[in-house]
Amino acid sequence: MKNTKVMIFQYFFQRWSIEKQVLHLKKKAVALGTRAKNGRKIYIYMLGNLFVEVVYLGDRSENIPEQVNVLRGLKNLNEYLESEFRTSF
User: Fold this and answer.
1) Could you say which of 3.30.67, 3.30.70, 1.10.150, 3.30.450 is the CATH number of the domain covering 2-87?
2) What's the predicted TM-score (pTM) here?
3) DSSP H helix total and E strand total for the chain
4) Are 56 and 43 in contact (CB under 8 A)?
5) How many Å apart are CA 48 and CA 36, to the nearest integer?
6) Contact 43, 52 (CB under 8 A)
7) Residues 6+ apart with CB under 8 A from 74
8) Distance (Å, whole) CA 52 – CA 2
9) Partner of 22 for a Cys bridge, out of 32, 57, 65, 78, CB 3.0 to 4.6 A?
10) What CA–CA distance (Å, rounded) separates 7 from 33?
């Protein structure tokens, strides 16, 4: 039953506006850190089994979010980050 609730939450989370997603992340998620890509700072959050990257205007988390990328599960996060790392060279 818990897995079903998680899937339902993930479904709705991905359909919220970027502003609502980020507001929820700031209240409920764990901030894992940042990484750099193309001269931009990307903030990474963990919310249960969701890993979310957020790019903010001016690269400051106090500013308006510009872009959100949602990854489901640690395996997908690792594969995504490895792929990003390989393409950076």
Assistant:
1) 3.30.67
2) 0.86
3) 3, 4
4) yes
5) 24
6) no
7) 49, 51
8) 21
9) 65
10) 25
Containing 13, the helix (H) or strand (E) segment is helix 2-13
What are the domain boundaries of the chain? Answer: 2-87
pLDDT of residue 17: 95
Are 28 and 13 a contacting pair, CB within 8 Å? Answer: no
Q: Could you tell me the mean pLDDT of each successive run of 10 residues in the chain, 89 residues long?
A: 77 93 96 93 93 96 95 88 82
| Burial (CB count <10 Å: 0-12, 13-18, 19+), residue 35 | middle
The pLDDT score that the predictor gives to residue 2 is 66
Give the pLDDT confidence score for residue 55 in this predicted structure: 97
8 Å CB contact between 52 and 29 = yes
What 3-state DSSP class applies to 77?
helix
